[in-house]
Amino acid sequence: MKHSRILIVDDDSDVLTAVRLLLKQHVGEVITEHNPEQIPAILTKETLDLVLLDMNFKSTINTGNEGLYWLNRIKTIKPDLPVVMITAYGAIDLAVTSLKQGAADFVVKPWQNEQLIAVITGLLSKKDRKKNAENNVGTDLELIGKSEVMQDLLYKVSKIAPTDANILVLGENGTGKDLIATAIHRQSKRADKPFIKVDVGALTESLFESELFGHKKGAFTDAREDRVGRFEAANGGTLFLDEIGNISLQQQAKLLSVLQNRQVIPLGSNTPIPVDIRLICATNVPLADLANENRFRKDLIYRVNTVDLQVPPLRERDEDTIRIARHFLHKYAEKYMKSAGDFDKRAEQKLLNYHYPGNVRELQYSIERAVIMAEGQILGADDLIFSPIEQAPKKSENQQAVPAQHNLIELERLTIANVVEKHGGNISKAAKELGITRTALYRRLSKYDI
Fold this sequence. Notes:
There is one protein chain. The protein contains 18 helices and 14 strands. The radius of gyration is 26 Å and the shape is globular. It starts with a strand and ends with a helix. α2 (39-45) packs parallel to α3 and α5 (113-142) crosses α7 (177-186). The chain has helices spanning 13-23, 39-45, 65-77, 92-100, 113-142, 148-160, 177-186, 205-213, 230-233, 249-261, 287-290, 298-304, 318-335, 345-353, 359-373, 408-422, 427-434, 438-447, and strands at residues 5-9, 29-33, 50-54, 83-87, 105-108, 167-170, 195-199, 238-242, 263-264, 273-274, 278-283, 307-310, 342-343, 378-379. The chain has a 5-stranded parallel beta sheet, with helices on both faces. A 5-stranded parallel beta sheet has the order 7-8-11-6-12. Strands 9-10 form a two-stranded antiparallel ribbon. α1 links the parallel β1 (5-9) and β2. The protein is α/β, with parallel strands linked by helices.
């Protein structure tokens, strides 16, 4: 509730002021808007937890049609966003119509303050419970790891999580770095506090400070209200900065200052706000590349990297591939009300032989597509189509050219044979160049009879 963000849309400025003053004591931020035409833009730009929407906007005939129209627009753009309708006309037919069209509840003007707060509190609590339930299921199931490399990673997570050490999670796109960050938070002493995620790599220079550190009303042209930054929203809990390797040197300097001083100064303010957070960062940029000071400040690396964790690519997790695929098979069969139940042997072999440049994310989308298109309960090899947008790993200079007609199995076999030969049969050196463990390399040597 304290970190929730609510949008109020009403063309009556007195209503906007009254609701904002009432709710600012109970929620993190209240955004007000008198023009409903701005709703789509606000929904695209802002992360919201609830909308209070008036039924009538400067209409000579108070039919409620405008409110129903904008309700439908909101539900089209953000289907899961709760909308509470505000009406001065308590006709039961209008209330029933709005509820049937997706409204979560309605209040009648003039309302009792306690009643309005109770409605909002109930809906936000319900949303939090649903979100937590989804997060628990997602993380517990999709972070599947029986392979040696994943067992090693999960052991490190269990050791590090109870501490307050800053953690840098490394790994290719699609490996599940965000799931590792969530698992660390849930096993930490801050588990009952906020877990705030920010994709800092996607923030423009102009949005970076406002999003992370907050701003005061009037700090810039569109700053109509005070806004709490993500650092302050995560106070007492965990802040997860995803894709930190993609931020500019100027952004790095600002971030370093906050981490050193453990306080933020919102835009338009001179008053520092202390913050107590546990920091987790993630990037797909290799640590060696981050060490290049033309790209990333070394002093910031030391700040964010008390401990680093490497999330392995799916191609190193042979034992996990079928388990993960079955999880997604059951998940999407239930979602799309299909009867798909398992893979046949050829499908399993195809899953095991593929190299997964897009990692678990690519496997997930491939299984979802297969479930949607499959005709029978058992999925075959022909049902599995891997993403054409992913590119195979680049061939090393020492790797022999592979004719185009060779399939992916032959490509992997030749690559392994070439690297092992290059290192004179030294398994440790070959495994290091291939980016896999010695155990994984032994399995492939046996599999391809090399």
